[in-house]
């Protein structure tokens, strides 16, 4: 029996997590309908005092940042010619493309007038940071789509167009790195206009650089987690010979980022806020411990980096600390100046969780049907026995 016939003969049997993802997707669609028919006020706890909530802090800032592994890995492989990392480039590009795609969906939900999202294409305002972010996100999403296109083209036998794109891969990677550098840092630039509102534990003139470097560290951590989750879901081996060197890069990025954060806090004379152990001080300590101190401490030892359990633990803490940082910048650090405490509504959380679940489901579908990992599609069921 041929591979194609074997795959066609397999019946789709939804498992527990597939059913959960389906339920979350339906809940997401329900909230989306309510949001577009009744407005933001019907589904969110946003207000004029606090107009940006979890859809910006998590869906946008974290979605873009955690997709940074795509430009990091493609640069390592195609610009620095470290071909040994090539096996994990495709899944990383897929993760980046899905991350950016769902960031765009989240923006459509968050914008007060989403039907005007295309205005940045026609009505240029080059003095606006939002204009630069909009263009970079659009262009880099396009670059990721083109970089991933050969996977789809090869699957359906369009080998000539796939080879043509492969010949363009180096300029595409250079363009992707440039665009990522611009908008990863520009997301931090958004908060430079509120020096009197953002808490001194998070405000710094170097926020653009902090956002960029922390995205590199967290993006590498996301690559490790992605490999681990793929191993659990698809019974693939964890590429320790590839991930261990990446963990060293994560240590360097997080170490530089941590020193920059401490220097900024010292410049703002904000260490007293930490010693007071108030709400902001506690949130900073939790974020900094999880996102910098523990991952750097653990991954600095080769024996721990070489252990899959410790490697995944360090990567998970780096990603979790990154998420906390973006939420602290966008929510915790802004609450005192706004005079209110923001707590996302259940429907806001449903949208965020639904987007994550949908992204994971699409990733699983792609892995089962396209050559994301070396060896070709995994298929919808167990591999056939030899000779079948």
Please provide a written account of the structure.
This protein is mainly α and 388 residues long. The protein has a single domain, classed as Formate dehydrogenase/DMSO reductase fold (Up-down Bundle), CATH 1.20.1630. The protein contains 16 helices and no strands. The longest helix is centred in the last third of the chain and has 31 residues, at 308-338. The model is unreliable at 1-10 and 380-388 (pLDDT under 50).
Distance between the termini: 6 Å
Helix count equals 16
What coarse outline follows from CA principal-axis ratios?
Answer: globular
What is the share of helical residues?
over 70%
Taking all Cα atoms into account, the compactness measure Rg is 21 Å
**Major beta-sheet overview:** none
Return the domain count: 1
What structural class do helix, strand and pairing data support? mainly alpha
The CATH homologous superfamily corresponds to Formate dehydrogenase/DMSO reductase domain
Uncertain runs are: 1-10, 380-388
Count of extended strands: 0
CATH class: Mainly Alpha
CATH topology tier name: Formate dehydrogenase/DMSO reductase fold
